[in-house]
Amino acid sequence: MTAPWWHGAVVYQVYPRSFQDSNGDGVGDLNGIAARLDHLVDLGVDAVWLSPVYPSPMADFGYDVSDYTGIDPLFGTMADFDRLLAAVHTRGLKLIMDLVPNHTSTAHPWFLQARAARQNPRRDWYVWADPAPGGGPPNNWISEFGGPAWTRDAVTGQYYYHAFLATQPDLNWRNPQVQDAIEQVMRFWLDKGVDGFRLDTVQHLFEDERLRDNPPNPDWRPGQPPTQALRRLYTTDRPELFRLLPRWRTLADSFGDRVLISEAYVPLAGLAPYYGANNDSMHLPFNFHLIGARWNAAELAALIRDYDAIVPAGAWPNWVLGNHDRSRIAARVGADQAAAAALLLLTLRGTPTMYYGDELGLSDVPIPPDRVQDPWEKNVSGYGLGRDPVRTPMPWSAAANGGFSAAPPWLPLNADFAARNVAAQRADPDSLLNLYRRVLALRRAEPALALGDLVSVGHQGDVLWYIRQRQGRALTVALNLGPRPATWTLPAAAPCRVVLSTARTRAGALLTGSVELASGEGMIVEAAP
Ligand code: TEU
Question: Is there a contact between 83 and 34 (Cβ–Cβ < 8 Å)?
Answer without folding.
Answer: yes
